[in-house]
């Protein structure tokens, strides 16, 4: 009975030892604990009990090992069949159960490498802690690193700039002769332009001498061919062609003055009104009833440039006809409608006697318009005043309204 109690006690202690150590274990034979002087049946019974206990322990160990392996697979901790994988037992079969001498069996089994997975987790934790430590690093240190980096970049840029500057200087030194050559060409062109401007020409003083005349429709035509005006009298001499065009324009201005007096019967009035014969002066044109008309008067103001009294555009007179380029159709219609008419001459502001001498109180278009307004229009008896202004003449019209 004592032997049975010892066997039972040993049977109860084996599971406790497995639970405490949780490692591969050896189960030793308890044959030494059995007295050698007992009967064979009693000895056989004790061996059966021991074997049954050993089998139970082995089964529990194997079941726990399988459960741990399943947990490792489900947790994603299984690692290949190569290095770091799970090895079970001593051979390829994973788990070997050996039998030793005297019927003793040893079970060697490696549990899933929890230690390695724990190490991996600890490694990840360490990385996280390291990253947090870097994030908490002194901000002044970050600024210092950035400043150092910027200094390096500035140094590189300065080196590149210096190298580029040296390269550009070498180019300049190589092209000094070319620069001098370009400067000489520029000076020659400038001198040529000056000589061109100072060229003098002698042109005819009548349209007939230029070979042109106005036909019955007021169109300027070549007397011989009947062709329109040709600007390019000389193919390769622009200055000559321009001066010729201006000379013809001056003749046309005089023709328009004559038409204002003879065709629409306007009178010429000297401006300033008190000008002496010796001082510079200009003139305007007015209908005979311009100041006496009790109802209405029309004031005509041309634009800027070379146009004079009675003209809207010299180019239209030359290239189209008199009706398109002059104020004569307006004047005729105004008279038919019962208007008195005043025609300004706001671009005739100076006389040339070796130099430009401005006309008193009429030295520019605005002054001329104000003078005519104050000394003629405001003296009119008309109740209604109509102003027709073209282009820059609108400035003069606006200045007149301010004086009403």
Protein architecture, described:
The chain is 50% helix and 11% strand. It is an alpha+beta fold and 404 residues long. The strands form 4 sheets. A 5-stranded mixed sheet has the order 5-6-8-7-11, sandwiched between helices. The longest helix has 36 residues, at 139-174. The protein is elongated. The termini are far apart.
Characterize this entry briefly.
The chain is of the alpha+beta class. The chain has helices at residues 2-21, 40-74, 114-135, 139-174, 176-197, 207-210, 238-262, 314-319, 322-325, 328-336, 365-375, 393-402; strands at residues 96-99, 105-108, 212-214, 220-222, 267-271, 282-286, 296-301, 340-343, 350-352, 356-358, 384-389. Strand 3 and strand 4 (220-222) form a beta hairpin.
Distance between the termini: 148 Å
Shape: elongated
Radius of gyration: 61 Å
Strand content: 5-15%
Rounded mean pLDDT score: 76
Strand elements, count: 11
Poorly predicted ranges (pLDDT <50, ≥5 residues)? 1-39, 77-113
Series of secondary-structure elements, N-terminal to C-terminal: HHEEHHHHEEHEEEHHHEEEHEH
Number of helices: 12
Largest sheet: 5 strands, mixed
Q: Roughly how much helix do the residues carry, as a percent range?
A: 40-55%
Structural class: alpha+beta
Strand order of the largest sheet: 5-6-8-7-11
Key attributes of the depicted protein:
404 residues; alpha+beta; five-stranded mixed β-sheet; two-stranded antiparallel sheet; 11 strands
